[in-house]
Amino acid sequence: MQKAMRSVLDGSTYVLVGKIGVFADKQGIKACIVGGMVRDIFLKRKTVDIDVVVLGDGMKFARLLADELHGAYKGFEKFKTAKIFLKNGRIDISSARSETYEKPAALPNVVLSGINEDLFRRDFTINSMAVSINREDFGELFDPFGGVSDLKKKILKTMHDKSFIDDPTRILRAVRFETRLGFKMEKRTLKLIHETLKRNIFDNLSGERIREELFIMFGEPSPLKAMLRLDSLGVLKKLSHGIRIDATAIRMFKNISASRSMIAGYGADAALINLMALLGGITSGAAGTVAAKLKLSNEQNTAIKQAKELRMLSEKGLAKTGKSRSDTYFLFKDHATEALLYLMLMQKDRKQAARIRHFLDKLKHVKIEISGKDLKEMGIKEGPEYTRILSAVMKAKLDGKANTREEQLKLVKSYF
Ligand code: CTP
Fold first, then answer.
1. b/e per residue 355-370 (b: at least 16 CB within 10 A)
2. Which of the residues 65, 120, 134, 152 has an alpha carbon 20 to 30 A from that of 54?
3. pTM beyond 0.90
4. How many domains does the chain have?
């Protein structure tokens, strides 16, 4: 295991894992890496998130480790877990039951039962393996539930029958791992998902957690695959009845995936645009309900509403909204970049797509050469009139009728 860890983890992560192990030795505590990192080491996938389980008081250990590594500590008393935020990464620490445990590896049975118990509470067998990082047995694998064998068989197997009821976001995680890793859910796991879905699972789940899971999926290379799978399992309609992955949604998910670098270039959030695509086919009211359920921020909420309005406008014919530069500017100026990118990726009419791009690249950044200060100096009384005048100047500039400061001042004077 040590060899695999060295070859898959990048140098600094490997060193950090070793440091945590040495620190655990100093504290006389048993520590293992666990979960996704172990899975990804076997799959030879790059991984940086460090999940550590310690036998004993994980929160105390995390506080001390945070000091040692000059990181920021955040504890979650209820779950006996803690996070350490470092300059370039994060360590998650959880506590496993230790009871009579005294020294690292001194009581292997206690170690085993403590670790096993922790692993048993996890989601899938492939995520329920641990690897010791104490110096004495660094690299020793704990795989009591056949995780390695399931990794080889490429199957996703839940740990126990109540797993999805305990935590329904695991249904979303199951789909994420299926699509990300090209794995298949094992029969019993699938049956348990179907049984869980007969209940109103999302009612008792925090919106933040559903949103987090959805957004992680939107960040994966193929959100479309995951969305199709969620749709066929009947998960999406639990979010809102009308949600379907129809032809338009499919086209949109594909377009968004193909345009990732362009979206990033605009500093926009691709996950939010994917969410717009997901909610594209339902009414504004229903989309609003989903947005509230997912506890979106005000900005995200507004962007979703704007996407809906722009889609309606587009269905009526975007070309009808005018041709001039100022028409385009005033149509789009108050919209979130994500809503505009959604509209752009929606367009079958190339001219209209180019028009939106022109706005984002050029028109959005146009500034006029005069300001409210000039209006004041001209003796115009301050008030809402200023916005009207400055907008008129902007319109003139965009349409090539008042390019210089002199021309713009002259235009203002002509109003009075
Ligand atoms: N876990 C769980 N149930 C959940 C979430 C997490 O049992 N609902 C456990 C799993 O053992 C998982 C570990 O906590 O491997 C870490 O969770 P997380 O970091 O969210 O996921 P990863 O499995 O690391 O996946 P990713 O690579 O996407 O981060």
1. bbbebbeebeeeebeb
2. 152
3. no
4. 3
